[in-house]
Each structure stands twice: as structure tokens, then as C-alpha cells.
């Protein structure tokens, strides 16, 4: 057998399967023709060993704790670049020149307003609606307002839809927040940068001037960079699957937002902060560690563990630093939740259970503390994640639509239900 093929033997028969290398990371065994050739499906619930696509956008080495956007380490992008530069990189594949960056910023900035009629959608929601529920509904509704960018076969329309979503997501997220807290909507301001404009739309009120703190805006921008893409995670795979049928991009992103909402995914930052609040004080940590290790207790340490990272999540390290910067800027010297988080991390990282299972803090462990300090209620945390991840979803969606070998996604199953049986009239059923 050559180095670039694998042999599959079932009973007396064998087949050669092609092995394709990645530029970095594991190679894949190509099983696309497996069913046709062998009559067998593969079985991989949760896709733990299955590559669903070929991609050039983001790479994670979970054992090393490495995250690259288009080859650039997340640490360098987060410390030296800004979010719109990362957006350009994810969308176009290269860092922009100064002229390209200026042009991109201009194009995003001038798409930030939403159709005025769309603002009435918000008032149709119950006042106590979760802002993620509002996001799912209103982002899906974009396809009802921007008909001139829903033809996915037109590259120009695809790009306009992409820019519209990156530009409008902060406006929609801020409106969801304002509606949630019962304050008037604040329109976008084109003289502010992306993160400052978002903070302004969230925290300004018409009755007084609001000055955006540049340190907090920089922290917000860095949080957006850290969340911008994460290869084929659940919500991104949802966007790709939705898009594989030819659905318009606004509908696909709404599907991604719905998936992100779950507590095992984007909802974990909200859940992590709630957990820190529930623990409440350092002396209660052992009780919760014990529960997390108990097989009969469904409790998990939220913000710990990751499907791919079996080492420290590189985003968590940057997030932790950002947390300290934000708290220092706001003069918050004693945050009991931060004390609990630091001690919990220390204890868990030295505990045999967590060491053996390679459970490390993920990005959500510290992001909640930072977002709360910035002034956001917990219900907004996943919304901010959705805002930032939109560019990743869009880049992955575009890559898929532009791939000539793209097919509708259609997984198979291992059927374990009844074999064929005859219909029984209701009068004869027991
Ligand atoms: N606390 C306690 N035990 C855990 C935890 C945890 N947070 N996470 C995993 N384990 C245990 C789990 O019980 C299992 O033990 P065993 O092998 O004895 O059955 C083992 O570790 C492997 O867990 P798994 O559920 O099979 O692993 P997974 O890859 O399917 O799950 C995960 C990954 C992120 C869903 C999971 O670690 C988890 O539920 N973490 C808490 C939620 C969380 O923080 N999610 C945010 C993920 S990062 C943001 C994002 O990318 O969306």
C-alpha cells in the first residue's frame, strides 16, 4: 500500500481509499465513494473524526493549543490588528494593504443602517424576549428586505450580502439590547470605528452625551477578533449545511445563530458566568469540582473543556489578559466572580480528573466576566458571540458556494428502527 492510500477490508474484500494530506494537520481518508463501492456507510455521531469539507480559512491544532486565521496566529492578530482587518483577512484570504483596508472599512461603515421598516420587527417581540430569540428572527428577516443580495449565483450579490451582514449585525445586536432594556434605539455613527460604534449604540441614550472609552472599545474589538472564526464548529457547520441547499445567506446566518444559542456552544459564556455566580465564593469550589467529577451528576464546569482543544484554548489566554485590562480600566479592584474564576481554574488544572481528560479553560471561561464589566447583561453574551462569528460564517459560506465540487449536505444514518411491517387498522390495535 502506498503512503497516500489506506486499505479497508470487510470480510474477504478489500478496497484502497485515497489519503489526502492537509497543508498542516491530519490528512483525511477519502470515503466519498465508499457506499457506491462497498455498500457501507461510515458511522461517526458528532463528527468527531469526519472532515465535512475542504477549507483554507481557519486551522486549529487542539493538542498544541494553536489557532490560525489564514495562517496567522490568533495572538498576533488580536494584539496587533483590529477586527475589520481580521474580517478582510477571513473573507479575502490576505491581510489588506492600507488602501484595501480603508476601502473595506468605508464599505462596511456605509452599510450599518438597517431598513427603517425593520426596526418595527423588534417591537413585535415580547419585552422579556431573550435577545438571541430576537436575533434569530430579525437576521432571518433581512432576506425579506435585501432582495438585491439574495441571488447566490452572482458574486457581486454574494459580496454585498457579506458586507451587509458584517455591517448590520452590530446595529441589530444593539437594537435587540435596547429593546430588551426598554431604551430607545440609537442609530449607527459613521465617524466611530466598528467596536466604538457598537458600544455607542448599546450604551448611549438620547438625553446625554456618551463618550466611548477607547480602552473598552479596544477590548470589545479584541473580543470580536477572538470569536471571528473557529473552523467547522457546530454553528458554522449549520451555516454550511443550510447553505448547501442554495438557501440565501441571511437565512443561513439565522440558522447559525440558532445553533450558536445552545449552552454547549455559544451559550456557554452565559452559563459560565451563571455558574461562577452560583458558586459565589472560593470556599464553595470543592463542592462544585466534586459535582463536575460525579458521573451521576449532569453538572459540568461551564467554560471548561473543548471538542478540539486538548490544551489551553489560546483564545482563553488572551481573554484572561483582556479581563484584567478591562477591570483595571474600570477601577474594579475586587470582583468576587474573578476571584472564584482564578481559584477554580487553579484547582481544576491541578486535579487528576481534569488533567486526565485534558479539560482546560476555554474562551467562555473569562469572556463573561469581561462582558459583564463592560456593562452587558448575561443574556447579551451569546449575541456578542454571534455578532463576531458572523464574518466566519460568511467566509465559510462563501468558500462553500464558490467551491465547484459543492453538493447539498446529506448525511446518512445507521437505521435501528423496525424492519417493514404491515399497517394495522385502528380497530385491531391494542
Ligand atoms: N466538566 C466536567 N467534565 C467534563 C467537562 C466539563 N466542562 N467537559 C467534558 N467533561 C468530561 C465528560 O464528562 C467526559 O467524561 P467521560 O469520558 O468520563 O464520559 C469527557 O470529559 C469528554 O467529554 P465529552 O462531552 O465527550 O467531550 P465533547 O468533545 O463532546 O464536549 C464540550 C466538548 C465543550 C461540549 C464539553 O467539554 C462541555 O460540555 N463543556 C462545557 C460547555 C462549554 O464550556 N462549552 C464551550 C465550548 S468553547 C466555545 C465554543 O467553541 O462554542
Task: Offer a concise description of the structure.
The chain is built from 18 helices and six strands. The protein has 430 residues and is mainly α. Strand 5 and strand 6 (72-73) form a beta hairpin.
List the secondary-structure elements in sequence, H or E.
EEEHEEEHHHHHHHHHHHHHHHHH
Secondary-structure-based class equals: mainly alpha
Q: What is the count of β-strands?
A: 6
CATH class of the largest domain: Mainly Alpha
Strand order of the largest sheet: 1-2-3
Q: Could you give the distance between the termini?
A: 58 Å
Query: Which architecture name of the largest domain does CATH use?
Result: Orthogonal Bundle
The CATH topology of the largest domain turns out to be Citrate Synthase, domain 1
- Report low-confidence residues grouped into runs of 5 or more: none
Which molecules are bound besides the chains?
carboxymethyl coenzyme *A
- When the domains are counted, the total is 2
Mean pLDDT: 94
What is the CA-atom radius of gyration, in angstroms? 23 Å
**Can you count the helices?**
18
The CATH H-level homologous superfamily of the largest domain:
Citrate Synthase, domain 1
The major sheet is characterized as:
3 strands, antiparallel
Helix content: 40-55%
Shape: globular
> Strand share of the residues?
5-15%
Amino acid at each position: 500500500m502506498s503512503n497516500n492510500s489506506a486499505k479497508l477490508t470487510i470480510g474477504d474484500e478489500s478496497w484502497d481509499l485515497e489519503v489526502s494530506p492537509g497543508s498542516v494537520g491530519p490528512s483525511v481518508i477519502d470515503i466519498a465513494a465508499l457506499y457506491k463501492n462497498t455498500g457501507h456507510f461510515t458511522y461517526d455521531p458528532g463528527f468527531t473524526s469526519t472532515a465535512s469539507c475542504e477549507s483554507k480559512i481557519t486551522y486549529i491544532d487542539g493538542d498544541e493549543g494553536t489557532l490560525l486565521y489564514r495562517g496567522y496566529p490568533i495572538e498576533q492578530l488580536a494584539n496587533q490588528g483590529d477586527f475589520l482587518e481580521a474580517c478582510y483577512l477571513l473573507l479575502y484570504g490576505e491581510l489588506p494593504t492600507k488602501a484595501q483596508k480603508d476601502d473595506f472599512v468605508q464599505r462596511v461603515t456605509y452599510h450599518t443602517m438597517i431598513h427603517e421598516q425593520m426596526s418595527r420587527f423588534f417591537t413585535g417581540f415580547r419585552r422579556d424576549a431573550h435577545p438571541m430569540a430576537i436575533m434569530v428572527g430579525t437576521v432571518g428577516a433581512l432576506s425579506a428586505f435585501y432582495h438585491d443580495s439574495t441571488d447566490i449565483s452572482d458574486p457581486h450579490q454574494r459580496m454585498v450580502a457579506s458586507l451587509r451582514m458584517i455591517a448590520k449585525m452590530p446595529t441589530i445586536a444593539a437594537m435587540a439590547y435596547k429593546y430588551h432594556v426598554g431604551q430607545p434605539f440609537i442609530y449607527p455613527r459613521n465617524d466611530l470605528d466598528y467596536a466604538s460604534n457598537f458600544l455607542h449604540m448599546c450604551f448611549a441614550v438620547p438625553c446625554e452625551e456618551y463618550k466611548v472609552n477607547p480602552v473598552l472599545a479596544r477590548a470589545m474589538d479584541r473580543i470580536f477578533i477572538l470569536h471571528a472564526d473557529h473552523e467547522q464548529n457546530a454553528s458554522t457547520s449549520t451555516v454550511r449545511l443550510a447553505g448547501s441547499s442554495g438557501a440565501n445567506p441571511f437565512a443561513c446566518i439565522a440558522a447559525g445563530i440558532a445553533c450558536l444559542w445552545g449552552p454547549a456552544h455559544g451559550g456557554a459564556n452565559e452559563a459560565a458566568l451563571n455558574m461562577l455566580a452560583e458558586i459565589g465564593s472560593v470556599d464553595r469550589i470543592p463542592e462544585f469540582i466534586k459535582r463536575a467529577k460525579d458521573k451521576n451528576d449532569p453538572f459540568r464546569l461551564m467554560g471548561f473543556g473543548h471538542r478540539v482543544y486538548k490544551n489551553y484554548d489560546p483564545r482563553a489566554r488572551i481573554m484572561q489578559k483582556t479581563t484584567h485590562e478591562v477591570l483595571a480600566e474600570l477601577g474594579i479592584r475586587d470582583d468576587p466572580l474573578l476571584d472564584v474564576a482564578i481559584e477554580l481554574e487553579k484547582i481544576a488544572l491541578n486535579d487528576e480528573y481534569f488533567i486526565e481528560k485534558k479539560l482546560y479553560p476555554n474562551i467562555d471561561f473569562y469572556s463573561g466576566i469581561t462582558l459583564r464589566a463592560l456593562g452587558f447583561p448575561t443574556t447579551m453574551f451569546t449575541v456578542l458571540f454571534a455578532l463576531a462569528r458572523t464574518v466566519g460564517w460568511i467566509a465559510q459560506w462563501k468558500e462553500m458556494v464558490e467551491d465547484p465540487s459543492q453538493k447539498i449536505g446529506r448525511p446518512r444514518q445507521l437505521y435501528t428502527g423496525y424492519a417493514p411491517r404491515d399497517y394495522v387498522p385502528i380497530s385491531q390495535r391494542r
